[in-house]
From TrEMBL:
GO terms for cellular component: endomembrane system; plasma membrane. It is a multi-pass membrane protein. It comes from the Bacteria. It holds the Pfam family Xan_ur_permease. InterPro entries: Azg-like, NCS2. This is AGZA family xanthine/uracil permease-like MFS transporter. Belongs to the nucleobase:cation symporter-2 (NCS2) (TC 2.A.40) family. Azg-like subfamily. Keywords: Membrane, Transmembrane, Transmembrane helix, Transport.
């Protein structure tokens, strides 16, 4: 589990530093959050799972809100906190199924691919494979060392994953980091090991009041939806795998892991680490024989050891992390094939989510457009009964969002 998810403590700080956060301090915060969240899952959830900031939520915070949306970081952390609180309350009161019924199935299945295409775009942009042109995106300088290393890394990573090589993400990151030394991509200032940087500048740097502005509702929903459905899918997948491997059909109650996940989201926002979620790569632990929270405790200990290697993590170039971001994003996009293409009133709203996310570079707005489009398309098609009453409550807020944006 550690080898499958260790890339997060390199990739996540790199993305957040693009938004102006101090790289060393945010690396410390991310490692602490991963270690504590994973340990909590082991102690309270008693399941082999790793918790870390999700690439989708981090992308939304770093690139959509802070860089492109003129939202300060404390306000973004406030949105993350409230989304985690909503998740926690739904878990405590056992009404998770209500959310699943309100959100149309086609939109639910499109959220993952939309996040994936946004993540892949971030990877292309950070590697210089795509640049902003006068009227649209243009091809970057493919002859640059960073672009060449990124493309090579993507090819190697796909090959390693196809062969199910353990720790493929770490292998590619380390290899490109080493190759990047003579190419001038990797630059290490000072000793590679040392005490972690102080996270004091990021602790409790959060705006809980300002983040409740009605204009931010679609983003709050984007955080909540991505965390809710991602965690639900991962927890169910891992627990089912454990049951199958043990030769039993006994269902594991997901309430405890959901409580840990939602609490970790809230705690992560206080540490400046957005959208903590249960990682799909946790399945590697179950496949390797992990059955209980003891696996999570060992993984948490491994992450804690990385605290003395934060200077080394800061030297890893974006060309080494971009292949990971791109491949993870493309893998998530592949989930779009599950959407029923025989019913256009279901397919088109899902396509709207994907296309608007890509064209606007903002999957929060993409999800809002898909939800509003779903209502309009169903109404025009005369399929009123397909619309859950909860969607009618949400529609005025979505309309207000686009009026405000206009």
């Amino acid at each position: 589990m550690f080898l499958a998810t260790a890339y997060t403590v390199v990739v996540i700080p790199g993305m957040l530093s693009d938004a102006g956060l101090p790289h060393a301090a945010v690396t410390t915060c991310v490692i602490v959050v991963v270690a504590l969240g994973t340990a909590a899952m082991g102690l309270f959830g008693n399941l082999p799972m790793v918790l870390a900031p999700g690439l989708g939520g981090v992308s939304l915070v770093a690139y959509t809100l802070v860089l492109d949306g003129n939202v300060d970081y404390p306000t973004a952390m406030g949105m993350v906190f409230w989304s985690g609180l909503a998740f926690l309350l739904l878990t405590i009161f056992g009404i998770r199924s209500l959310v699943a019924r309100i959100i149309p199935a086609s939109i639910r299945m499109a959220i993952g691919p939309a996040i994936g295409i946004f993540i892949a775009f971030v990877g292309f942009r950070s590697a210089g494979l795509t640049v902003a042109g006068k009227s649209s995106l243009e091809l970057g300088d493919l002859a640059s060392p960073a672009a060449l290393m990124t493309l090579l890394g993507v090819v190697v990573l796909i090959a390693l994953n196809a062969r199910k090589v353990p720790g493929s993400f770490i292998i590619v990151i380390v290899a490109i980091t080493i190759i990047g030394i003579p190419l001038g991509l990797t630059k290490l200032d000072g000793a590679p090991f040392g005490l972690p940087a102080s996270p004091s500048g990021l602790l409790f740097h959060i705006d809980l009041i300002g983040s409740l502005s009605p204009h931010y509702l679609p983003y709050l929903f984007a955080f909540f939806a991505s965390e809710f459905f991602s965690t639900t899918g991962v927890v169910m997948t891992v627990t089912d795998h454990i049951g199958q491997s043990a030769g039993t059909t006994t269902q594991i109650d997901p309430k405890r892991p959901f409580l840990v996940d939602s609490s970790s989201i809230m705690a992560g926002s206080l540490f400046g680490s957005p959208s903590v979620t249960t990682y799909a790569e946790s399945a590697a632990g179950a496949e390797a024989g992990g059955r209980t929270g003891l696996s999570s405790l060992w993984a948490a200990a491994c992450f804690a050891i990385l605290l003395i290697a934060t200077p080394l993590a800061g030297a890893i170039p974006s060309a080494a992390t971009a292949p990971v971001v791109i491949v993870v994003g493309l893998t998530i996009v592949a989930g779009f094939r599950r959407i029923d293409s025989s019913d256009l009133t279901e397919l088109l709203p899902a396509v709207i989510v994907l296309v608007c996310t890509l064209l606007w570079g903002n999957f929060g707005t993409g999800i809002a457009a898909g939800l509003l489009g779903y209502v309009l398309i169903k109404v025009c098609a005369g399929k009123w009964k397909d619309i859950h009453p909860g969607m009618w409550v949400m529609t005025p807020f979505l309309v207000y969002f686009f009026i405000a944006a206009a």
